[in-house]
Amino acid sequence: MNKLEDLIDLITTNLDSPEKEKLIAEIEREPDKKKLYSRLKTTWALIASERQMSDAKVETSYKQVRVQLSRNRAPRLISLVRLKYAASIALLIGLSVVMFYWGRYSKSWDETLVVNSVIAPKGEISKVILPDSTVVWLNSGTTLKYDNHFALDNRRLTIYGQAYLAVKRNEDLPLVVSTGQIDVKVLGTKFDVCAYPEEDDIQVVLESGKVELLRSEDRSVLDMLKPGQMAKYDILNHRLAIEDVQPNTYMSWKEGELLFKDAPMSNVIKRLERRFDVAFVVKDPGVYRSVLTGNFRTEGLKEIMEYIRFSCQINYSIQKDSVSNTSTIILQSK
Amino acid sequence: MLERESDLLNGLKNDDENTFKIIFKRYYSRLYYFIFEFIPYDDLVENVIQDTFLTLWNKRYDLDDDTNFSAYLFTVARNNCLYRLRSEKYRKKLFVEGSADSMELELNASILSTVDTSVYAFREIERIIEETLDQLPAQCKNVFLLRINAKKNKEIADELNISVKVVEKHVTKGLKVFRKALKDYLPLIGYLFTL
Question: Ranges for the RNA polymerase sigma factor 70 region 4 type domain (chain B) (predicted)?
Answer without folding.
Answer: 127-176
